[in-house]
Amino acid sequence: MPDIVIKAEDGGSFGAYLAAPKSGPGSGVLVIQEIFGVNAVMRAIADDLAAQGYFALCPDIFWRQEPGVQLTDQTDAEWARAFEFFKGFDEAKGIADLKSSLNHLRALPGCTGKVGTVGYCLGGRLVYLMACRSNADANVSFYGVGIENNLGEAKAIAKPTLLHIAEKDSYVPPDAQAKIQAGLSSIPSVTLFYTYEGQEHGFARAGGKHYDQASVDLANDRTSVFFKRYLA
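Above: the chain sequence. Below: its structure as C-alpha cells.
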C-alpha cells in the first residue's frame, strides 16, 4: 500500500500510510498512531481494516518534529525517543492535522464519505478529542491517556464513541478510569465502555510486552461490529 501526502491547513504537508480495500468502494477509518510513529504495528492495523473493506489512513502526526518516525517498543533507547516525541507534540496542531487527514480520507475516490477514527495510547486520547472536535462519524479509543483531563469537552460529542479500557493500565490508573466513566456516562453518544480485566496498557500492540491475544481478538471483534453499525 502507498504512502501519500496530505496538505496541512497552516501550510506544509505530511505523509500518511494508506491501505485501500480490494473489494471496491467502502467507508473510511482514520488510524491514529501511538507514540512510536507510523510503524509496522500501525501499518498492519491499517492493512487489516482494508481487508475488512475500509479505506484506512494512518497519518504521521509527529511530522512537525521529525517526518517519518518509525520506532518499536523493543529497546530502552526507542522508548526514550518515543517519549521525547510525545512531550514535544503540539496537540492543537495535531488535531488540525487529523482533521485535514479526515477530509482527505473522505474525498478519496471510492470512499463513501462515512469516516471513523481508531487510535491507541496517545492516539486513543486523540480519538476522544476528535470525537469532541470533529465530524467523524464513529470513534474507537484503545486505552487513551489523559482523557480525564478533557472531560469538560464531552458534551460536544455528537457521534457514536466507544472506549476500550485496560483494567491494570499503568498510565490510566483506577481513579482516572473512574473519572472517565463518570464523566462520560451521561453522554448519549458515548455508547460503550469495555474494560479488559487484568490487562495492561498496550494489550493490543502486536509484539509488545503486554500483548494479549484473547483480549485483542475480543476488542477487535467489538470494534468491527461497532464500525459496521455506524459506518455502513
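The longest strand covers residues 111-120.
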